[in-house]
Amino acid sequence: MMAEQLPEGYVRYLAGLEEKQADAILPVLKQSVADGTRGVLVRFLPDEVQAVASEDVQFGTIREERYDE
Fold first, then answer.
1. Residue 65 to residue 42: CA distance in whole angstroms
2. Least enclosed by CB within 10 Å: which of 27, 33, 49, 52?
3. Overall pTM surpassing 0.85 (yes/no)
4. What confidence tens digit (pLDDT) does each residue in 22-64 have?
5. Is there a contact between 30 and 37 (Cβ–Cβ < 8 Å)?
6. Backbone angles phi, psi at 38, to 5 degrees
C-alpha cells in the first residue's frame, strides 16, 4: 500500500512530520487502513515517536499525546 492509498487526513498528517517521524508512523497508518476499524494513537516522547492502531481512536482519525515538551 502506497501513502497515496491512505485516507486524505492520514496523508496530510504525514506531510506535516519530519521524514524520520513519518517513516515510523506510516506502517501503523497502513495497519489502520487494512483493519478498517481502528484509528491511530501517536505518542511523541523526548527521543522517539511511537504509534499504535487503537480501538480508542475512531478510524481515519489520528490522536496525539505529547510527552516531548
1. 6
2. 27
3. yes
4. 999 999 999 999 999 999 999 999 999 999 999 999 999 999 9
5. no
6. -115, 145
